[in-house]
Design a protein that fits this description.
This protein is mainly alpha-helical. The protein has a single domain, classed as Helix Hairpins (Orthogonal Bundle). The chain has 3 helices and no strands. Helix 1 runs antiparallel to helix 2 and helix 2 packs antiparallel against helix 3. The longest helix has 26 residues. The chain is flat, with a radius of gyration of 15 Å.
């Protein structure tokens, strides 16, 4: 039963990744593209965690922490660039 739920959730996260990637490419504004990128890495992170639960491996959880760290910093840097026009003050 748990395996069926894991496969269904992986399928749903895969669909959400495709929809986020579409919004990233077709976003009408830079802010929409940044939000799509932020949501893209969060959904990728969730897909990686579910795959780690399926394989019962700790390596995927460590990779998820790295993705979360880089995703957060990239979102902060891109938002700061949009607000001020530069990254380093």
């Amino acid at each position: 039963m748990l395996n069926a739920v894991i496969y269904i959730s992986m399928f749903m996260f895969g669909i959400s990744l495709l929809l986020n990637f579409y919004r990233l490419l077709r976003g009408p504004d830079a802010v929409d593209r940044i939000l799509a990128l932020d949501t893209l890495y969060i959904n990728g992170l969730a897909l990686l965690l579910v795959f780690g639960v399926l394989l019962n491996s700790r390596l995927f959880f460590e990779a998820a922490l790295l993705i979360a760290l880089f995703g957060f910093f990239s979102t902060v840097v891109l938002c700061k660039y949009l607000l001020r026009g530069d990254i380093i003050e």
